[in-house]
């Protein structure tokens, strides 16, 4: 069953993935992710389903305000939502960030890397953003390894207004970034 688009997000395609705007189809997978304490802590606190709904609505509003936000990552072969990835810059953020989340059952397959490359390339090439970062909780070794693989370097630790202490990883400038 398909659900109508909730934003004017473009559709990006990679070899294995479709990155598209959020719809209600993947909300259940997102709510399950955010209810799982071991999986969500690098992205935010454990959320009730109602709190996940509010974050989901916030992402839709973010698209309308900024013209970018988190895409849904869809596995091309199955059409199954595999996670979210995109550009995030709500009030209080130091600057636009490339962020990623992979849902249960999709880890360890390079999906976050493939999606982040596509989202970052779109942000640089289409949106014309001059710089991007990734905000990572200290100790989140998987996201730190992915940031390094993307060519990002640890710049500083700072106090994120929503997440507390985080590391700010600087991505390569558009001319130097892999796409």
From TrEMBL:
<dbReference type="InterPro" id="IPR051531">
    <property type="entry name" value="N-acetyltransferase"/>
</dbReference>
<keyword id="KW-0808">Transferase</keyword>
<dbReference type="Pfam" id="PF13302">
    <property type="entry name" value="Acetyltransf_3"/>
</dbReference>
<protein>
    <submittedName>
        <fullName>Acetyltransferase</fullName>
    </submittedName>
</protein>
<dbReference type="InterPro" id="IPR000182">
    <property type="entry name" value="GNAT_dom"/>
</dbReference>
<dbReference type="GO" id="GO:0016747">
    <property type="term" value="F:acyltransferase activity, transferring groups other than amino-acyl groups"/>
</dbReference>
<dbReference type="InterPro" id="IPR016181">
    <property type="entry name" value="Acyl_CoA_acyltransferase"/>
</dbReference>
<feature type="domain" description="N-acetyltransferase">
    <location>
        <begin position="16"/>
        <end position="153"/>
    </location>
</feature>
